[in-house]
Amino acid sequence: MTVTSTAPEIHTELDALRDAMRRLIAREMTPHYADWERAGAIPRELWRTMGAAGLLCTSIPEAYGGPGAGLAHARVVIEGLADAFVALPGFYTHSEIIAPYILKYGTEQQKQTWLPRCVTGDCVLSIAMTEPGAGSDLRGARTVARRDGDDYVISGQKTFITNGLHADLVIVLAGTEGMSPGRKSLFLVETNRSGFSRGRVLDKLGQRAQDTVELFFDETRIPATNLLGVEGEGLGYLMAQLPRERLFVGMSAIAGAEAAFREALAYTNTRHAFGQPISQFQHLRFRLAELKTKITVARAFLDQCIARFEAGQLSVDEAAMCKYWITDVEAEVLDQCVQMHGGYGFMRDYPVARAYADARGQRIYAGTNEIMKEIIARNL
């Protein structure tokens, strides 16, 4: 599967991938999803199941075991999960956010060692940036990497780490001795290293099946060859890759909004009051019309941003607009869809109730929407 295929071939590939995604969700995820929400995590083997189906790391080149596909293939996976109300952002975080760091900044040895295993699901990735005292301003991160001969020794704590429970490899942001607070580095840390440990699986409002954990590094020793890229350039690498991450959050958000709207439309057409479907009342009809319009505009804006990204033209402020605007639209859509369901919208038995909670985090991670507005304002 390559991006050099003609348009009809690409559509055939995408249709096949979409069908595979739907079948896998129906067979492997939906029947067990409530149990995973209660457990706070998915089973480790599900990663290999996704890999075997060709649903991980779709943009990784064939030289490293991937299909070398474009964003359209990744979008099928992201939107397939959202469409089924399966809130597992760790899959696209692994595939389309973290693996590209290794692809772009890794040595040939690092790429050959890790990327093929990421494609198959034999290696699960997480990225550890946020700390208890450092979120939006990562210059304040206190984790440090001390050079000791041919090794680095890492000490510190990270929190809110997606995929941390099952991760085999963590990209860790840490300061290095002798450099200013604004000069951080990225390190590849295998989770079987001495001094590495996991803390709590955090109890979240939404996305409850997606593990989010604390990570601890207590004099964790790694070889100097585990440095990712150039020492001191870590924050620059993060800033360069964040527009891509924000684009994927937008993909998930618009698909979530569309799925919730579909549920609300079906519910209002079948729920009767005063002798008619409630969708026939003018207030609801107008509200549905407004939501449909906003979803359509958001989808068009996302498509424009994706096209500009693939052309190498998407700016940092445009990516911020995409992330903040579409997640805000999703929040409005979900709030109104819950309201349209009345009391049932407050019950977790109904998909819109779970989706309402699941979506809330999207206005926080990948940079809060307030930070997105700051980025936009700086570029006016």
UniProtKB/TrEMBL annotation:
Single Gene Ontology BP annotation: fatty acid beta-oxidation using acyl-CoA dehydrogenase
Domain Acyl-CoA dehydrogenase/oxidase N-terminal: 13-122
Record keyword Flavoprotein present: yes
Domain Acyl-CoA dehydrogenase/oxidase C-terminal residue range list: 232-380
Database matches in SUPFAM superfamilies: Acyl-CoA dehydrogenase C-terminal domain-like, Acyl-CoA dehydrogenase NM domain-like
One term of GO molecular function: acyl-CoA dehydrogenase activity
Any Pfam family: Acyl-CoA_dh_M
Keyword Nucleus: no
PROSITE patterns: ACYL_COA_DH_1, ACYL_COA_DH_2
Domain Acyl-CoA oxidase/dehydrogenase middle: 126-219
Pathway this chain belongs to: Siderophore biosynthesis; mycobactin biosynthesis
GO CC, one annotated term: cytoplasm
Tree of life domain: Bacteria
Functional note: Catalyzes the dehydrogenation at the alpha-beta position of ACP-bound acyl chains. This results in the introduction of a double bond in the lipidic chain, which is further transferred to the epsilon-amino group of lysine residue in the mycobactin core by MbtK.
PANTHER family xref list: LONG-CHAIN SPECIFIC ACYL-COA DEHYDROGENASE, MITOCHONDRIAL, MEDIUM-CHAIN SPECIFIC ACYL-COA DEHYDROGENASE, MITOCHONDRIAL-RELATED
Family: Belongs to the acyl-CoA dehydrogenase family.
Name this protein carries in UniProt: Acyl-[acyl-carrier-protein] dehydrogenase MbtN
